[in-house]
Amino acid sequence: IGADSEYMRLSLAPSLVGAVNQIRGESATFHLFELANVYIPVRGMLPEERMMAAGIFANTEFVQAKGTLEALFVVLKSNVMLATQDGKGFAPHHRLAIRAGREEIGQFGKLQHSGYWYWEIDIEALRKVSSTTHSFKPLPKYPPQVEDLSLVIPARARLGEIIENIYKSDSQVVSVELKDSYENTRTFHLAYQNPE
Q1: Burial code of 13-31, b = ≥16 C-beta within 10 A, e = fewer?
Q2: For residue 178, what are the β-bridge partners?
Q3: How far is residue 174 from each of residues 48, 72, 178, measured CA to CA in Å?
Q4: pLDDT the model gives residue 24
Q5: Beta bridge pairs of residue 173
Q6: In terms of C-beta density within 10 A (0-12 exposed, 13-18 middle, 19 or more buried), how is residue 67 classed?
Q7: SS3 of 92, please?
Q8: Phi-psi region for residue 183, left (φ > 0), alpha (ψ -120 to 50) or beta?
């Protein structure tokens, strides 16, 4: 503990930005994360202590950073959704609120001053909307049919909604992944599979 860390933290962002800036000379893509308590001020009382998970991406594009976070939610079987909403400390129109129902349990976006992609989530709130039970699904007998599909997509279209609609188009679509992007063209890697 030193003079620069003598006060209780309201956010994990400053320490993560500081850590990235110390190794900024490297051009490698990397993701730093931290689990620690933050202290939310409460008027006239002691601060509220919350265990938070936070991470910061360096040399990473938005799609990759968001995909990493969404993969975490899939592994945890978390019932959360991302909603566009501006917030303090984030660049305008570059913040997504992480919501469980009506409650905001975290946030993800581009930090206003550093330009890094940053996320933070309340651990206890995430635990409440996640599942620790796993189900067994036998491997299919036959391999999937795989294809790449390139689409020209308007600039303001949301990829999450497009991928969701591809899944809804046919029950035999078992996997949809964004493979490549060039200007307004997006290439998706699709797998079709009938279990029988």
Answers
A1: bebbbeebeeeeeeeeeeb
A2: 188
A3: 43, 19, 14
A4: 65
A5: 192
A6: middle
A7: strand
A8: left
Banded pLDDT at 193 (limits 50, 70, 90): very high
Which amino acid, 94? H
Distant-in-sequence, close-in-space partners of 4: CB < 8 Å, separation ≥ 6: none
Token pair of 1 as six digits: 């503990």
- Main-chain dihedrals φ then ψ at residue 93, nearest 5 degrees: 65, 20
Q: What is the pTM of this model?
A: 0.69
- 140/108 Cα distance (integer angstroms): 36
Instruction: Pull the structure tokens for residue 95.
Output: 């913040």
Residue for token digits 């078992």? 174
Beta strands in the chain (DSSP E): 30-40, 48-58, 81-84, 90-100, 103-111, 117-122, 145-152, 173-182, 185-192
Q: How many angstroms separate the CA atoms of 158 and 10, rounded?
A: 32
3-state secondary structure 96-108: EEEEECCEEEEEE
Task: Please list the residues that pair with 49 across neighbouring strands.
Answer: 39
Local structure of residue 151 (DSSP, 8 states): E
Say if CB 119 and CB 94 are below 8 A apart.
Answer: no
